[in-house]
Design goal:
89 residues, mainly alpha, 3 helices, 0% strand, elongated
């Protein structure tokens, strides 16, 4: 399997979790979106344009790691907000 579908899947999941959080806290979502854009642009540029295999592997791992961590943080925050909002009603 090629590396690109794995990266696209993790980045899409992370981006969708940021969009879902926009409903509950706009500032949190905008900060996450800016953070996601900054590291994604830099690391995707490195992944597709750096020639060395070692550079591609390290950028691949960093993209996966950062996207997974940000996705987990966003999902935890989303679940927290859902349960808090249900408890308040």
């Amino acid at each position: 399997m090629d590396d690109n579908p794995i990266l696209i899947l993790t980045s899409t999941a992370c981006f969708l979790s940021v969009i879902l959080n926009y409903r509950y806290n706009k500032r949190f979502a905008i900060v996450n979106l800016i953070l996601f854009a900054v590291y994604s642009i830099y690391l995707y540029y490195g992944f597709f344009n750096w020639a060395s295999w070692n550079d591609r592997l390290s950028t691949f791992m960093f993209i996966l790691l950062l996207s997974a961590v940000q996705f987990i943080i966003n999902i935890i925050y989303l679940l927290y907000r859902l349960f808090i909002q249900k408890r308040m009603e």
